[in-house]
Amino acid sequence: MSIAAARVIVCSPGRNFVTLKIETSDGLTGVGDATLNGRELAVAAYLNEHVVPLLIGRDPARIEDTWQYLYKGAYWRRGPVTMTAIAAVDTALWDIKGKVAGLPVYQLLGGRSRSGVSVYGHANGATVDDLLSSVASFVSRGYRAVRVQAAIPEISEMYGVSAAAIYEPASAAIPAESVWSTEHYLAHLPGVLARVRAEFGPGLRLLHDVHHRLTPIEAARLGKSLEPYALTWLEDPVPAELPDGYRLIRQHTTTPLAVGEVFNSIWDGERLIREQLIDYIRATVVHAGGITHLRRIFDLAALHHVRTGSHGATDLSPICMSAALHLDLAVPNFGLQEYMPHAPETDEVFPHGYRYADGYLHPSEEPGLGVDIDEALAAKYPYRPASLPVSRLADGTLHDW
Ligand code: EZ4
Ligand code: CO
């Protein structure tokens, strides 16, 4: 059997997605997510111009060799565009291998290590009362873990807080801009968490995403001030290019730390993991080199008491979510999976067999990943440019988003 064709499909059912579909000489197909929010066409071009021509005629069974061929063979290593493209190929080949074997992918990864994949949902609100009702609605639907993001009265627009039913940060072709104030954020947030914890008691797992907006000493202060509310994790407190920042935070607080949604390879988190500077690694199948490479990252993490907490926002397609669930079910050090429902039109374009029940997601039991793309329907949703927003301080200084 050999790879007969590979197609890059760009569509926008609710938001932009890039998908790779590989076809074998035996008529089997496999799909991989290649979506890089706000930079979609760069990955599509990388795949079309530099990867697809190399795939034709290759043996689809050779997943590891293909990974090494695309990674080492390019000479230029790592980076989000490259690693997202490699991830798409890798994911599609695992899908095909599952179909050849007649087994769901998690069986090929060692079989189930748990009965279901614990997920957390996103609660947010323009006021603390709205936030409390949002949390309550997750609890009533069986969630045992909730990420809480609250609007700050003095800040007009806040990341992670949206009135829309489907959260979507990417909007205009030219990035939208908002103004940030660390002072107001640090003053407001502990009171919000205090109310949520008081209302829902100790059993509910609470998380919060800082979105890279603090310095290490500010994050240390926040972590300390949130200790009474026992967060499951504080996410992306500072940008992670400099791992020493995390050492500084660690010296001051026992609030657990989660990092990795922008990581592309094991080398982005290697020191953070090896020196036990974080508690959860949030890298994903689509942005960190596929199932093959994410498994390698998770195995390194397992040696250092770091658990998994893969990113699962709406800009990762149902293909990525399907792949994540197979890995989540199999690895020994699974922690928690982020889960945000996609827009209904996204679900229609990507028919999938995973299902939510009582706080858990369950991957499909079909051979392979149990997800596909309806190409005819996808063609009805053409790409439209959309960028992630940027954030500035009051004086106009560009800040982290
Ligand atoms: O900002 O997915 O944890 N989730 C997040 C997301 C990210 C977007 C970026 O594309 O931080 O909302
Ligand atoms: Co995040």
Major sheet characteristics: 10 strands, mixed
- Looking at the structure, the CATH topology of the largest domain is TIM Barrel
As for the number of domains, it is 2
Tell me the CATH architecture of the largest domain.
Alpha-Beta Barrel
Oligomer: single chain
Bound molecules: (2S,3R,4R)-2,3,4,5-tetrahydroxy-N-oxo-pentanamide, cobalt (II) ion
Q: Beta-sheet strand percentage? A: 15-25%
Just give the CATH class of the largest domain: Alpha Beta
Q: In which range does the helix fraction lie?
A: 25-40%
Low-pLDDT segments: none
Estimate the mean pLDDT confidence: 97
Rg on CA atoms, Å: 21 Å
CATH-level-4 superfamily name of the largest domain: Enolase-like C-terminal domain
Give the total of beta strands: 16
Question: How far is the N terminus from the C terminus?
Answer: 46 Å
Helix/strand/pairing class, anyone?
alpha/beta
